[in-house]
Write a structure and sequence with these properties.
Rossmann fold, 6 strands, alpha/beta, about 160 residues, six-stranded mixed beta sheet, globular
Length: about 160
């Protein structure tokens, strides 16, 4: 599962320290409930260490139930799709379902690259996902985390707060 942080405010603070806006504080629990209601429950969470992503997780978590292992990962802040892919590849195989909470454009680029058909494949190219704040994409792929590569995942679900 790939979740972009909820809507943030723009106070005069360093980017990593930006908090959630009122809308973000409202949208994050809604997305958490949607994940729970659709059976998308993570066993492990990798969350950017930025304030707005940590706050998003804090509001999503109670809606999910359970207690997944959580890592607040500095490398996920402003990360490229490739860096995010490396973070996912580091996950232990004991976790079948993972939630990555991060930022654009890296998160949207990761979703696009994972679902893009490989060159030479007759499948049509994926349309790309518009990834507004608090949007979540649910992907599945065969194999273990270290083997995840571009073009191997299938988009199962995608939702934004505006859809709910």
């Amino acid at each position: 599962m790939l979740l972009r942080h909820a809507k943030s405010a723009w106070p005069d603070v360093p980017d990593q320290d930006r908090p959630l806006a009122k809308r973000g504080r409202r949208d994050a629990p809604v997305i958490g409930r949607w994940l729970r209601d659709h059976g998308y429950l993570p066993d492990v969470v990798v969350c950017s260490a930025a304030r707005r992503t940590r706050q998003t997780w804090k509001l999503v978590a109670p809606e999910l139930g359970g207690s997944p292992s959580v890592t607040f990962e500095p490398r996920a802040y402003a990360a490229s799709a490739l860096t995010l892919l490396y973070l996912v590849r580091e996950l232990p195989g004991t976790y079948p379902a993972a939630l990555l909470i991060g930022h654009n454009p890296g998160l949207a680029d990761l979703a696009a690259s994972l679902t893009e058909p490989l060159a030479g494949n007759d499948a049509p190219p994926s349309p790309g996902l518009r990834f507004p704040t608090a949007a979540v994409a649910v992907l599945e792929f065969p194999g273990d985390w270290p083997d995840l590569a571009p073009g191997q995942a299938r988009l199962l679900d995608f939702v934004t707060p505006a859809d709910l």
